[in-house]
Design a protein that fits this description.
The chain has three helices and six strands; from the N terminus they run E-E-E-H-E-E-H-E-H. The chain is α+β, with helices and mostly antiparallel strands and 134 residues long. The strands form two sheets. A four-stranded antiparallel sheet has the order 4-5-3-6, with helices on one face.
Length: 134
């Protein structure tokens, strides 16, 4: 598997996260059709904000997404945009939200993924050659 890096004017990056968003009160409200709507919303937001949803899936009360994003975007910016747009479209499609106007819990789980294991990175850094002293 070859890695495709994000190349921008002053940087080359590969920043990925596993994002989990849960419904308000963890109520099981999603169906297969409503998850398709959420996925479409996530992908539309990603295109507008210049990041990618690499994988998406969900259960009755949560969604999981693997996201590749530029370092200029913060995780909270991404999550707020994804939740806001998807909640609005979910309501507009006539689906029932778990609590009045709220589809999502304000909480989320995000963790960085990919790359070499920490021990490999630590060893690589330890093995760098220091410049000779004068």
């Amino acid at each position: 598997m070859t890695t495709i890096y994000r190349r921008e004017r002053h940087s080359v990056t590969e920043v990925k996260m596993h994002l989990v968003c849960i419904t308000k009160y963890r109520r099981s409200v999603f169906t297969s059709d409503s998850l398709d709507l959420i996925e479409t919303s996530f992908r539309d937001v990603a295109q507008k904000m210049n990041f990618q949803v690499l994988e998406f899936n969900g259960e009755g009360d949560r969604v999981h997404a693997l996201i590749e994003y530029p370092p200029k975007l913060s995780i909270s910016q991404i999550v707020n945009a994804l939740k806001g747009v998807s909640s609005r479209r979910y309501g507009q499609a006539g689906h029932e939200k778990p609590h009045k106007e709220a589809l999502w819990s304000p909480s989320y789980f995000a963790v960085s993924v990919g790359g070499a294991p920490l021990e490999v990175l630590k060893e690589y850094i330890r093995n760098q050659e220091k410049p000779a002293t004068e």
